[in-house]
């Protein structure tokens, strides 16, 4: 028999000396139904606490969208699917500093620098360093004879 309150047991005849004992099973069910709302009222706060615990224990859902300053790194490493701006792993690359950047933006910047006059000067200085056999730090156009020679050679290569 399920757990019953004292009043129901007395009505059901479990208690010694009970005079009001129902004789049929229908009468027992009716007595239990009358006593059930009182038991439920007492058990309700405990049930609410259990519900709150179950909700608290619910597993946190991890999203596939990366946000924040490390978003591109998380996508590049494969921990997230995309950034909040829609960049996926195939859209990202590492620059020469080791920072994760957009491939599209990186390619545009490389093309822009390739057309810039600064790139031509850098190429001329590197060729001049090779031809003069210079190794290590040599300031271009500095006070030393090596620096002056490097500057003249780079100017001649750039002008040619």
Strand content: 5-15%
What is the general shape? rod-shaped
Q: In angstroms, what separates the terminal alpha carbons?
A: 107 Å
Radius of gyration, in angstroms, nearest whole number: 42 Å
What proportion of the residues is helical, as a percent range? 55-70%
Structural class: mainly alpha
Number of strands: 4
Tell me the number of helical segments per DSSP (H or I, 4 or more residues long): 6
Quickly count the domains.
3
Average of per-residue pLDDT values: 82
Structure explained in plain terms:
By secondary structure, the protein is mainly α. It has 3 domains: about 5-55, no CATH class; about 60-100, no CATH class; about 115-160, no CATH class. The chain contains 6 helices and 4 strands, in the order ααβαβββααα. The chain has helices at about 5-10, 25-55, 70-75, 105-115, 115-130, 145-160, and strands at about 65, 80-85, 90-95, 100. The strands form 2 sheets. A two-stranded parallel ribbon has the order 1-2. A two-stranded antiparallel sheet has the order 3-4. Strand 3 (about 90-95) and strand 4 (about 100) form a beta hairpin. Helix 1 packs antiparallel against helix 2 and helix 5 (about 115-130) crosses helix 6 (about 145-160). The chain is rod-shaped.
